[in-house]
């Protein structure tokens, strides 16, 4: 969900484990990730809200604690919460049920690490279990005496390899998140109907405003005196719930928290001022903005901005269906700005949730390209290829002159993967094959290529004309997003990912049959100073399937011929120091 990790395993209904495990081996003798931490909590009346359901604030504290323990297990030193990705709450948890939380480090970088969290609820009487939410948190290791350099994680299972690989792409998206949202809000045309609404039925936004102060005491902080991130999130949820209640005059349910970053630490003795207001109310949901500032009594003249977050609430009726909400009337000036920005964020949030969280089998072949979703489409493009690469059930189908062909039948797709070693420097191979304008020089399936849009340094959109396949009378055309990535760390490959997108400037025409690719691209691994392993992956779409199976069955050698032509192209151009890719 959102940017949340997709855990393939399900929590065992007998898994009431203590908060910290015992290393890499589970109790039953099977493999267990050495950073994995599990927490099980019985929901008592003191943990619940007025509806007898677990308070989301309390749940956030438990999530943060479990994730922090996992991060500290890997780092071997204290860690603090740096950010939390989007969280979508799928269901509520009732008093008397058990909350099972599992956290593990997906990947470690220099001093930060991504922790994946899975939350499930359990009914002890019926033994039923439900997924509550999945989350991703970033923690930073902090040692007062010396700078921390974290050791790398070593993924063992297919799931761990996938999470480890995709974590680098998620980190890239987090680093540009604030600027991305700022640019999208500045450039997005926001439609609203403020002038047409019946003002007599509207609730003034100022009526929902909440301000509360909290004193940070030792129980709210870790052993270094820094306030627990989960505690701050719980206080934020409290004021946001009050603001939402003032609009709807009912008990709202928190459905989502948008990704946010902690801008700075707070310590024991700080006063935290929490402010909340309803920014906008849609038909069945509302967005509440929350801001946290810190100060020390008599020691600071200005307050420090700790963080801001946007939370989405709904009001459920007796049948658990969302009720229609009253309109909000924003204050002139900043209130109207927040109102319009909330509309833009809703659109961005839907794009992000849909594109980032969809399983590959649920993704349409072509997704409309739009400035509001380009960051998430690029993310999905690269992460989909990395997930395909991480699959561990590839089968070697053939090997001719050291060119290997592998196949994979998984998730309703037939995928193939070709691999060879080439006497070319890895960066040069990456740059040459990243340039789709040069692909017709070696790939006869690319008759012509036109650069349609240079999105940024790493992403570009091309229009590709391909000859007719088999008995087709018409040639094919493709609109392709090409996303390239350099390695995040030693051992990571260079990546060139390709997928179809839809552009209004390039609709289908009678001249060509529109072809689509859902996931394909190259990975390059450095095997030596002048030796590169070049791998090409393709998840076959229905229109391409017959052609793939013909080659896999050995009835055609076109795959082999094309890949050898690719090798010759790299060898002929390995001394080319200025390929046209420089502008990509």
Describe this protein's structure.
The protein is α+β, with helices and mostly antiparallel strands and 584 residues long. The chain folds into three domains: 33-171, Hotdog Thioesterase (Thiol Ester Dehydrase, Chain A); 200-360, Thiol Ester Dehydrase, Chain A, CATH 3.10.129; 363-573, 2-Layer Sandwich (Alpha-D-Glucose-1,6-Bisphosphate, Chain A, domain 4), CATH 3.30.530.20. The chain has nine helices and 25 strands. The strands form four sheets. Strands 15, 16, 17, 18, 19, 20, 21, 22, 23, 24 and 25 form an eleven-stranded mixed beta sheet that branches. The chain has a six-stranded antiparallel beta sheet with strand order 1-4-5-6-2-10. Strands 3-9-13-12-11-8 form a six-stranded antiparallel beta sheet. Strand 17 (403-410) and strand 18 (413-422) form a beta hairpin. The protein is globular.
List keywords for this structure.
disordered N terminus, eleven-stranded mixed beta sheet, six-stranded antiparallel beta sheet, globular, Alpha-D-Glucose-1,6-Bisphosphate, Chain A, domain 4, Thiol Ester Dehydrase, Chain A, alpha+beta, 3 domains, 584 residues, 25% helix
Tell me the distance between the termini: 31 Å
Q: Report low-confidence residues grouped into runs of 5 or more.
A: 1-28, 578-584
The CATH level-2 architecture of the largest domain is identified as: 2-Layer Sandwich
The structure class reads alpha+beta
Might you state the CATH topology name of the largest domain?
Alpha-D-Glucose-1,6-Bisphosphate, Chain A, domain 4
Task: Write down the oligomeric state.
Answer: single chain
By DSSP, the count of extended strands is 25
Please write the CATH class name of the largest domain. Alpha Beta
**What is the domain total for the residues?**
3
Largest sheet: 11 strands, mixed
Cα Rg? 26 Å
From the spread of the alpha carbons, the general shape counts as globular
- Portion in beta strands: 25-35%
Output the CATH homologous superfamily of the largest domain. START domain
Mean pLDDT score, rounded?
Answer: 85
Helix content: 10-25%
Question: With helices defined by DSSP (H or I, 4 residues minimum), what is the helix count?
Answer: 9
């Amino acid at each position: 969900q959102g940017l949340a990790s997709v855990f393939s395993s399900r929590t065992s209904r007998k898994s009431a484990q203590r908060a910290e495990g015992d290393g890499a081996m589970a109790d039953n003798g099977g493999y267990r990730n050495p950073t994995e931490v599990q927490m099980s909590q019985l929901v008592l009346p003191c943990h619940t809200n007025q509806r007898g359901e677990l308070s989301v604030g309390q749940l956030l504290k438990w999530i943060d604690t479990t994730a922090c323990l996992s991060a500290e297990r890997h780092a071997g030193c204290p860690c603090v919460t740096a950010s939390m990705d989007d969280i979508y709450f799928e269901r509520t948890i009732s008093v008397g049920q058990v909350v099972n939380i599992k956290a593990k480090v997906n990947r470690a970088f220099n001093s930060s690490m991504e922790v994946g969290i899975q939350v499930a609820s359990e009914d002890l009487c019926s033994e039923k279990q439900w997924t509550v939410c999945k989350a991703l948190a970033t923690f930073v290791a902090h040692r007062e005496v010396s700078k921390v350099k974290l050791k790398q994680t070593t993924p063992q299972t297919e799931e761990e390899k996938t999470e480890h690989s995709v974590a680098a792409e998620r980190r890239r998206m987090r680093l540009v998140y604030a600027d991305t949202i700022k640019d999208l809000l500045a450039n997005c045309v926001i439609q609203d109907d403020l002038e047409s609404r019946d003002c007599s039925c509207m609730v003034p936004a100022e009526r929902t405003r909440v301000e509360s102060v909290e004193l940070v005491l030792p129980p709210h902080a870790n052993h270094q005196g820094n306030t627990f991130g989960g505690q701050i999130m719980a206080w934020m949820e409290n004021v946001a719930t009050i603001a939402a209640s003032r609009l709807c005059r009912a008990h709202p349910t928190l459905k989502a928290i948008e990704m946010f970053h902690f801008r700075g630490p707070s310590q024991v003795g700080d006063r935290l001022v929490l402010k909340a207001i309803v920014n906008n109310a849609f038909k069945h949901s509302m967005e509440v903005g929350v801001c946290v500032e810190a100060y020390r009594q008599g020691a600071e003249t200005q307050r420090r901005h700790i963080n801001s977050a946007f939370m989405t609430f709904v009001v459920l009726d007796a049948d658990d269906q969302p009720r229609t909400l009253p309109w909000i009337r924003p204050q002139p000036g900043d209130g109207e700005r927040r109102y319009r920005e909330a509309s833009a964020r809703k659109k961005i949030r839907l794009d992000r949730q849909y594109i980032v969280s969809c399983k590959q089998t649920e993704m349409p072949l072509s997704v409309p390209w739009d400035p509001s979703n380009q960051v998430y489409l690029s993310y999905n493009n690269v992460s989909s290829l990395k997930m395909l690469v991480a699959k561990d059930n590839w089968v070697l189908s053939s090997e001719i002159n050291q060119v290997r062909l592998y196949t994979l039948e998984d998730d309703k797709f037939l995928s193939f993967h070709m691999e060879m070693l080439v006497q070319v420097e890895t960066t040069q191979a990456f740059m040459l094959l990243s340039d789709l304008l040069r692909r017709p020089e070696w790939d006869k399936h690319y008759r012509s290529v036109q650069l349609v849009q240079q999105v940024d340094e790493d992403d570009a959109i091309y229009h590709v004309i391909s000859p007719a396949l088999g008995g087709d009378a018409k040639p094919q055309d493709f609109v392709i997003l090409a996303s390239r990535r350099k390695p995040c760390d030693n051992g990571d490959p260079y990546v060139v990912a390709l997928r179809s997108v839809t552009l209004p400037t390039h609709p289908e025409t009678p001249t060509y049959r529109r072809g689509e690719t859902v996931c394909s691209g190259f990975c390059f691994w450095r095997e030596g100073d002048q030796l590169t392993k070049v791998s090409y992956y393709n998840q076959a779409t229905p229109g391409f399937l017959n052609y793939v199976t013909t080659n896999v069955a050995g009835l055609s050698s076109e795959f082999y011929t094309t890949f050898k032509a690719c090798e010759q192209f790299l060898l002929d151009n390995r001394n080319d120091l200025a390929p046209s890719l420089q502008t990509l």
